[in-house]
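User: Show me a protein chain along with its predicted structure.
Assistant: Here is one chain, sequence first, then structure tokens.
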Amino acid sequence: MEDFQQNVAWNYNGGNTTLQSFGVNEPTEISTKYIDFISSLKYYHIEDDIILVHAGLNDNVINPFNDMHQMLWSRNNKYSNPVLIGKSIIHGHTPISVENCEKIVLSNSNIINLDTGCVYKEKKGFGKLTAL
């Protein structure tokens, strides 16, 4: 059942489009060079006082950079971990409208969600690829 649910979620989030772009029918048919490339990517990047991460960080552990699961799945809007104080955290993972993204950026928040749901072009206020 879990595999089925993961498959449904993956397809909902563009899995079929991904398979089509590779010209395959199953994820197992994607060339290992692409899988190896994605597997080699860092979970986060720090540039000066800016942390770039897919989703967020675990605010409840001593070293939030050791929790890879949270970097892919968490949805935090604030942090109190001493390691993260004074840092700007830029992430995606949870789609927000372009309008909300603009408000966050213009508010000078130190936590910025840049996910404006570029795959959801049929939803009003979404469907844009956003960069900062």
